[in-house]
Specification:
By secondary structure, the chain is an alpha/beta fold. The protein has 2 domains: 149 residues, Rossmann fold; 125 residues, Rossmann fold (3-Layer(aba) Sandwich), CATH 3.40.50. The chain is built from 13 helices and 10 strands. The strands form 2 sheets. The chain has a 6-stranded parallel beta sheet with strand order 4-3-1-2-9-10, with helices on both faces. A 4-stranded parallel beta sheet has the order 6-5-7-8, with helices on both faces. β9, α13 and β10 form a beta-alpha-beta unit. α5 packs across α7. It is globular. It starts with a strand and ends in a 7-residue tail after the last strand. The structure holds D-glutamic acid.
Length: 285
């Protein structure tokens, strides 16, 4: 199976795009809803929680795990890839969402390699919205500098957007107030960004309100489609890994909190009934 991990149910936005573009594969989605939101938690808590989740997905039979969560991708991916996998799981792979998103922000082809790929000639201004932790990590700036050094980046934390989504407050005057509060620093600048990346799995659920506030000249980038197209390109470059993934088109859903709550939120998001199971994560020693 392909494991898809998110702190909460927002990652279903990424899963939906994956299943639409790559319906042949088997998927196992895990939401660590009991500990969500991750966005304001410390590095250690995000790392440990992500690692436990990844290990659970491996134990269930996933050979490849996508960290759909930006917060987990920016805080935990590097250590998992560089330290945990080589020592404990050399035959498994974990991929994140920052790199594919930065490729899309810079208008580069999937899998662009710094040094081998000529730097993006793109100049101009782009923006990323994310959780406090994602923005504080500076990961988007670091990756963008490698691939498109002449692009200027605005990073804006949107601390209350995830709690709004988790509470089901997707639209209405209260939500609009919080959308404006985080969008205004980006939109009130003299120069508008050409592209605005929603760098959090929950933010696409606020898209109608965001679209009303963002001028049409600004392209809004949603991650689901990007991650799906980049994953298809990754599969083509890694046929050995691709061959290990089941092709029954099945999907399982797991959560660390109430499965009925998760299923109700997930059904609204995916527009189809779903069954979820509650699982318990164990510390990784
Ligand atoms: N899903 C996380 C992300 O994409 C945000 C939610 C959270 O704060 O847990 O960054």
């Amino acid at each position: 199976m392909i494991g898809v991990f998110d702190s909460g149910f927002g990652g279903l936005t990424v899963l939906a795009s994956l299943r639409e573009s790559l319906p042949q594969y088997d998927y196992l989605f895990l939401a660590d809803s009991a500990r969500a939101p991750y966005g304001a938690r410390s590095f250690d808590v995000i790392y440990e929680s992500t690692l436990e989740s990844v290990e659970w997905l491996f134990d269930e039979g996933c050979t490849l795990v996508i960290l759909a969560c930006n917060t987990a991708s920016t805080r935990a991916l590097r250590n998992i890839q560089q330290i945990h996998l080589p020592a404990r799981r050399p035959d498994r792979r974990v991929l994140g969402v920052v790199r594919p998103s930065v490729e899309a922000l810079a208008g580069l082809p999937p899998g662009a390699v710094p040094g081998e790929t000529p730097p993006s000639p793109a100049t101009g201004l782009v923006a990323v919205l994310g959780t406090e932790s994602t923005i504080a990590s500076d990961s988007y700036r670091i990756e963008l500098r490698k691939l498109a050094p002449s692009l200027e980046l605005i990073q804006q934390a949107c601390p209350l957007w995830v709690p709004l989504v988790e509470a089901g407050e997707l639209d209405g005057p209260g939500t609009e107030w919080f959308l404006k509060r985080s969008l205004n620093p980006v939109l009130a600048r003299q120069r508008l960004p050409q592209r605005l990346l929603l760098g959090c799995t929950h933010f696409p659920l606020l898209l109608p309100g965001i679209r009303r506030l963002v001028p049409p000249s600004v392209e809004i980038i949603v991650q689901g489609g990007i991650v799906a197209s980049r994953l298809a390109a990754w599969m083509a470059r890694h046929p050995d890994q691709e061959a290990r993934i089941g092709r029954g088109g099945h999907c399982r859903f797991a959560t660390t909190d109430d499965p009925a709550w998760f299923a109700a939120r997930g059904e609204r998001l995916l527009g189809q009934p779903l069954q979820a199971e509650r699982i318990r994560l164990r510390p990784v020693r």
